Every structure is written in structure tokens, then in C-alpha cells.
């Protein structure tokens, strides 16, 4: 089969392209012009560049493929780019779905995020969790990903199967965009003053990529699948990463109120410096809750494998070291 991967030059996208090649798929990799394709350019793939918010670029990219993995998304937490983020995360999926219908694509696997579901205070959420409780918190990424997912779900049926994947917080190789990678360097260098008060559900990026591929044949149209894993606090995560360098996580854990205030301070400083904030109020509120998830549906139906956090930290560390980051 031939497929298109949007967002192929990103963290998850690069891992997905590598896994597709390993499984003998024919791959067309689609990335934003000027994005870093260094980690996929030597693979036996076709590369195309364009903007998912441009319907013409998307149409050209989709033509001639059997399946589409729509991985492209904007994860920024800088309010300077929130309008752009909304266009990418809402208009992008619509453009992709429309092109899939025009060109007779059989399956569209849409990458959402567990954040689009909300979280279960004091508990563990699954795909049927009914309360989107990030609304009104300023967490624009989750708001826009939720909206984009709802828009793309409407295209399921009439010849197009739409399957949604909800990744948890991902770690592993090819984190050249330094999503969680920057924590490795900051903890190594003692630049983290305190730990966030919340927690999250962590996924190995390679297993998330494999679940995307499994969703083409095994996924049910109109269904969503959480691909997360071990539920741990950020303090525990920071400690595990710091131990890779023979160090310890900071002793202080910020309270939610102080962390949110720090987000406002970072946001204000960004307007002066012109540099992205370290964290903004929405992200601080998000990282102040225990956002834990149940991946059993993906394990059962897609063969998804949960990886211990320690093992994914090891894989990320080894990749950073092998590629000159550490």
C-alpha cells in the first residue's frame, strides 16, 4: 500500500515514516517547507513539501495514495501563534479529509491527543470520558485539537474510514524538536528550579507509530484509541531523567497557583524578549493536574504495547547521545 504522512518532519511523524519503511510500505512524506527532514531524507521515500492549511498543497499530496496518516499539528503554547495553531489544528484536518474523499482514499488515521478528551480528577480516563475540563483554562493546544478531531470525525463513512489515535505524552528516539528532550539537558545542567505539581500518561513514540499503522487494518471506523501508558507524576519523571546523569530532581514541587502565576510571568516576559515563554498559564494549569489514561482498548484492538517510562527514557537518552545532542 502507498500512504501519505503529514507532519512527517516532526517527532511522531519521523518515527512513523521509519516504521512504515521497515514494514515495507510505500511512503510519501509531507512536511512544511523549510522544516527539518534530516532524519528521514535518506530513506527510500517520496518527499513533498507544503502547508496543511493550503487545500491545493494537500490535494496534490493526497492524490494517488491508499491511506493517509494525518500527524501534522501545532503544539505551540505561545499565544503569539494561537491563531496559526487554530488554522493548522482545525483547517488542516478538514483539508486532508476533503482531499481523501476526492481521491478515493480508503483510510484516514487522524492523530489527536489525550488532552482533547479532558482528564478524570482523581481517576483514570478512557475514550468515553465525558467531561472536557480543559475548556476555559487557556490551553489552546487541547482546545484546537479537540475541535479539529470533531470536524474530521464527520467524514467517517461513505467510503472513507476515519480512525482517531489519542497519543499520551511521548518520548523516544528522533526527538530532534526537543519536546520532552529539553528536560534532559535542563536537568543535566541544573536549570530546573522546581517540579510541576501534576502528572501524565507516557507513551513510547515508536509504539504510538506502530498503533497508527495497525489502525489502518484493525481500527474501527469512527472509533478513537488512547495510546498512552504508565501514569506517573512529573516529579517521578524528572527524577528518572535526572538519574541518567547521576543527579536528582529538584526538591521543590510548585503549587498549582504558584506554577500558574509563573506561567503568567513567562508570558509577560516573552512580550519583552520576543522569545517563546518557557511555559504559559494554560500549559501551567495543564501540568498541575493528574492527567492519567487507560490504553486497554488500543492494547486489545490494535496490539498496542505499553512501555515502562524507564525504558523510553533510556531509548531517548541513547538517541540523543548517538546523534550529538548530549
Biggest β-sheet strands, sense, barrel: 7 strands, parallel
CATH topology: Rossmann fold
Q: Do you know the CATH architecture?
A: 3-Layer(aba) Sandwich
Task: Kindly report the average pLDDT value.
Answer: 96
Strand percentage: 5-15%
Strand order of the largest sheet: 3-2-1-4-5-6-9
Using the coordinates above, name the CATH class.
Alpha Beta
Structural classification? alpha/beta
CATH superfamily: NAD(P)-binding Rossmann-like Domain
Shape: globular
Low-confidence stretches: none
- Compute the number of helices: 11
Helix content: 40-55%
Distance from N terminus to C terminus (CA atoms, Å) equals 38 Å
Series of secondary-structure elements, N-terminal to C-terminal: EHEEHEHEHEEHEHEEHHHHH
Number of domains: 1
Our Rg estimate from Cα atoms comes to 19 Å
Number of beta-strand segments: 10
Task: Note down, in words, how this protein is organized.
This protein has helices spanning 11-22, 55-62, 82-102, 140-153, 181-188, 205-218, 234-243, 256-273, 281-286, 296-302, 309-322, and strands at residues 2-6, 26-31, 46-49, 67-70, 107-111, 161-167, 169-171, 199-204, 224-227, 230-233. The protein has 326 residues and is of the alpha/beta class. It has one domain (2-180, 201-231, 293-322): Rossmann fold (3-Layer(aba) Sandwich), CATH 3.40.50.720. The strands form two sheets. It has a seven-stranded parallel beta sheet with strand order 3-2-1-4-5-6-9, sandwiched between helices. A three-stranded mixed beta sheet has the order 7-8-10. The radius of gyration is 19 Å and the shape is globular. It starts with a strand and ends with a helix. The mean pLDDT is 96.
Amino acid at each position: 500500500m502507498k500512504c501519505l504522512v503529514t507532519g512527517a518532519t516532526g517527532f511522531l511523524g519521523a518515527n512513523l515514516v521509519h516504521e512504515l519503511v521497515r514494514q515495507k510500505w510505500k511512503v510519501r512524506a509531507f512536511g512544511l517547507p523549510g522544516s527539518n527532514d534530516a532524519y528521514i531524507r535518506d530513506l527510500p521515500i517520496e518527499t513533498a513539501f507544503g502547508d496543511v492549511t493550503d487545500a491545493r498543497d494537500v490535494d496534490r499530496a493526497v492524490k494517488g495514495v491508499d491511506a493517509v496518516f494525518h500527524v501534522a499539528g501545532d503544539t505551540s503554547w505561545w499565544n503569539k501563534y494561537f491563531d496559526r495553531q487554530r488554522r493548522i489544528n482545525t483547517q488542516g484536518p478538514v483539508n486532508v479529509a476533503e482531499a481523501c474523499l476526492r481521491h478515493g482514499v480508503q483510510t484516514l488515521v487522524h492523530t489527536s491527543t489525550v488532552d482533547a478528551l479532558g482528564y478524570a480528577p482523581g481517576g483514570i480516563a478512557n475514550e468515553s470520558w465525558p467531561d472536557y475540563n480543559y475548556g476555559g483554562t487557556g490551553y489552546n493546544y487541547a482546545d484546537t485539537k479537540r475541535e479539529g478531531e470533531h470536524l474530521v470525525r464527520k467524514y467517517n463513512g461513505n467510503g472513507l474510514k476515519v480512525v482517531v489515535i489519542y497519543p499520551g505524552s511521548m518520548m523516544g528516539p528522533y526527538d530532534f524538536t526537543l519536546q520532552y528532550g529539553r528536560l534532559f539537558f535542563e536537568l543535566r545542567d541544573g536549570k530546573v528550579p522546581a517540579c510541576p505539581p501534576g502528572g501524565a500518561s507516557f507513551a513510547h513514540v515508536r509504539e504510538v507509530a506502530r498503533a497508527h499503522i495497525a489502525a489502518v487494518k484493525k481500527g474501527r471506523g469512527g472509533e478513537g484509541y488512547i495510546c498512552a501508558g504508565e501514569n506517573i507524576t512529573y516529579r517521578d519523571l524528572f527524577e528518572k531523567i535526572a538519574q541518567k546523569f547521576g543527579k536528582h530532581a529538584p526538591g521543590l514541587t510548585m503549587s498549582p497557583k504558584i506554577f500558574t502565576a509563573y506561567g503568567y510571568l513567562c508570558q509577560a516576559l516573552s512580550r519583552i524578549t520576543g522569545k517563546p515563554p518557557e511555559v504559559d498559564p494554560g500549559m501551567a494549569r495543564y501540568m498541575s493536574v493528574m492527567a492519567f489514561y487507560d490504553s486497554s482498548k488500543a492494547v486489545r484492538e490494535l496490539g498496542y504495547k505499553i512501555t515502562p517510562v524507564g525504558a523510553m527514557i533510556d531509548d531517548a537518552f541513547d538517541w540523543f547521545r548517538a546523534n550529538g545532542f548530549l
